[in-house]
């Protein structure tokens, strides 16, 4: 947020803040969680990730205990739990994704716009990756609705476009998937998230390569 001058401007600015803004110390700790998450997710060998995410989820909960009404911390607890579930795999991961879902829903109730609508992105990704009834709560219709809400808040963001592209690819809506993934590829870098952006761009590249061959070729006479 840019600094403003004048008492009136300051009051107006404060009035626009969410009800529970993170303290400076919690902001620093949140950034540490984000950096550790990126390191685990993109740099650690796969066999080491489950234990590392388990430890990180404990630290996220401890931080959340200090500010339980902080939507940003609830979002990141949800992200960490969902990636922990992915590393764990199997039926044992279902309890973790349910906890992640609850955390993200709580974040939406507190401040749906926190972190540019990241709760919508993460919750939407859970809905299309988790099995449906009777095993889990997966629902492709809800997934798409949530991802579109995320894009409405952050239309140029790397994550909402990446996850929407991944969703569309799984739905075999290949032309739409390509458009979303190319938009994700062009997203601006996020301050302080260099490692996460680097890892995400590699994932985008992999999905675009997967798409290659699924779309009809355009001949030179059709161009």
From TrEMBL:
This is Tetratricopeptide repeat protein. Pfam families: TPR_19. Residues 1-21 form the signal peptide. Keywords: Signal. The keyword Signal applies. InterPro entries: TPR-like_helical_dom_sf. The keyword Ion transport does not apply. Gene3D superfamilies: Tetratricopeptide repeat domain.
